[in-house]
Amino acid sequence: MRRLSLTARLSLMFMLAVIAVLAAAGFAFNHLSQRHFELLDRHTLEDKLGASERILSSLDRPENFDRIRPELLALLGGHRDLSALVVNEGGRVLFSDSPEVIPGILPFGRTLVDHPKG
Questions:
Q1: CB atoms < 10 A from the CB of 30, how many?
Q2: Are 85 and 103 in contact (CB under 8 A)?
Q3: What is the C-alpha R_g of the chain?
């Protein structure tokens, strides 16, 4: 069996070293970018939650919910990966920006009583 020349062996070692460095850099970049976007998503959700709580706390009577519906729709609507659902104590849906309500998401086994359109 013929032995590889010194130049060929050095080239192979250099190539393997470059592959290892690039692979490590790729894994690190992937991990850090995923973490970055998760933090951005968390920040956006916390902002939306805080703004929603402020809007809902301005509601003086449940009968006046239609007054704040446009504000909630402007805040929470238009996001492809975000849906919001506001229900009262009885499980009646007061606001949903999604055309479909996903069953089984209410706590304590409550069921949805009503789903108004819009």
A1: 10
A2: no
A3: 27
Structure tokens at 71: 């504000």
Say if CB 68 and CB 52 are below 8 A apart: no
Q: Percent of the chain at pLDDT above 70? A: 82
Q: Which helix (H) or strand (E) holds 42?
A: helix 6-57
Single-letter amino acid code for the residue at 2:
R
Return the beta strands (E) in 38-110 as ranges: 85-87, 93-96
Give the DSSP H/E element, type plus range, for residue 19. Answer: helix 6-57
Region 85-102 average pLDDT: 75
Strand partners, 87: 93
pTM of the model: 0.63
55 versus 115: which is more confidently predicted?
55
